[in-house]
Design goal:
alpha+beta
Length: about 110
């Protein structure tokens, strides 16, 4: 019986620690969202895990630059998926542009 109680206690402590880490991540996400909002960004989606925060936004102004992590063609548009670190969070967005070589002749 002592073994069972000690295992239950260890599990409860681990879950409590993970919950506190998740709450800390939520607070970081909230600060980042407020920062992005103050700089004119529109937040579309937020994913918060204990150790990783991903925030999807509309295309930001020139103040935020990110590296390209996906480049693809979609119809006559070229899509650049960009990612940047802002206040410890991963912020990502999609830039779309018409490409001359991809235009269909009509």
């Amino acid at each position: 019986m002592n073994v069972l109680k000690s295992v239950q206690k260890a599990i409860a402590l681990r879950l409590s620690k993970q919950s506190n880490e998740t709450l800390d991540s939520l607070r970081r996400a909230e600060k980042c969202i407020l920062f992005l909002h103050m700089h004119g960004c529109t937040v579309q989606n937020v994913s918060v895990r204990r150790d990783h925060i991903v925030i999807d936004i509309d295309q930001p102004g020139t103040w935020l630059t990110g590296s390209i992590f996906i480049r693809r063609v979609h119809g006559s548009m070229r899509e650049l998926h960009r990612v940047a670190r802002v206040m410890g969070c991963q912020v990502q967005w999609v830039e779309r542009e018409a490409h001359v070589l991809l235009q269909r002749e009509g």
